[in-house]
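Why do we care about 3D structure at all? Because function follows from shape, and shape follows, mostly, from sequence. That is the central idea of this module. The next example makes it concrete: a single protein chain, its amino acid sequence, and then its structure expressed as tokens.
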Amino acid sequence: MYKSISKAVSDFSSLSPARFFMPGHKGKYPEKLLDPALDITELDFSDNLLDPSGIIAEAQKKAEACFGGKCFFSTCGSTVPILAALSLFKKKRILMQRNSHISVYNALDLFDITPDFIPCRVSNGLIAPVGLKDIEAALKDDTSAVVITVPDYYGQTADVGSIYAFLKEKGIILIIDGAHAAHFTASKLLPPFPEGDITVTSLHKTLPALTSAAMAVVYNRNLTEKFKCALNKLHTTSPSYLILSSAEYAADYASDSKREKDYSALFDNINALKKSSRRIKYLDNQDFTRVVADISETGLSGKEGMKILEKHNVYCEFADERRLVFIATPFNSEEDFAKLNKALSEIEREKHHDNGKEIYLFPKSEFAMPYKAALSAEWEEVELVNAENRISAVNAGIYPPSVPVLLAGEWISRNHIKYIINTG
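And the structure:
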């Protein structure tokens, strides 16, 4: 039976679920900022996002006091600012993490960029954060920019300060996909906000903003005007003022010193949750608000654990083959944590039988030919199950968050095939 989008979402919301997924407001966003009467267009008083000089300019200036660089709001998520940043390197060579977001890969195609890849170091199916040595080993003489993701989807960060200092000396631009870092400015319990020449962050993921509210922070003054021009070419000319208002609200929230108390309480709730577990192991990451629970010792896969959570009206951000990932913010209530604790207790209450099932971990990859060459090479379509030892002509499969499992030009292994089939 057909159910409208609004009806489906309304039915879900009426269940009062424990929301350990984005956006950061957890359904507790100020109603006054959701009033349809606030949904307007560019008028004399309401400024112009693409060339702000009034209220939007002032809102972005307030954000700059918190984040430290020139701020540009986006109502198109982080994707458009990422594309804008990379458009500055049209027909040039960049170095990027193999596990970059798909928007970075799209930029390669859109702007005819030649990529080199920082290989993934994989342990227990988890990709390790990028290190300075990884970058040093992969740089080439004509590398124009480096693109890294900090933090990753599992709350792991990198030594951005050392990486940025090293690249500055070499005159190489650092672009940071900091989509999951917006809240870092809100508490001393969190890592420092990752500063590169250009850092893009999604305000909605971890702060109280509506979905698609994002921001670029330009720390390199020499790139400010170039980036602004590039962003204006790609951004919608009809930005939502509801999303803009929420971007301002989130930036204000992140800069309010009173939030330290909120994050301290959140820290205590998460610590209490972890201490109550026996078989569940938690990732020792740098962002304490990103709770990563390895439930493999229970005999359950992440997807099976997620079904138990949902039985208790608890929803996580995502599940991989062995882990559950929760995004917690100060907007999660004591009741949310009580529900989560009860659900996790059921998961680990008794040893589940895994019946010898196989766990599919993120496969290691190896290039057979350059990425760009593969995209333009002659190709033929074959069934995935018959593709072992062939070279992929396209990017395929999705690893959270929107990272291709297999890249064009990489050898297709049996592990790739099994992973894509069983986790897709």
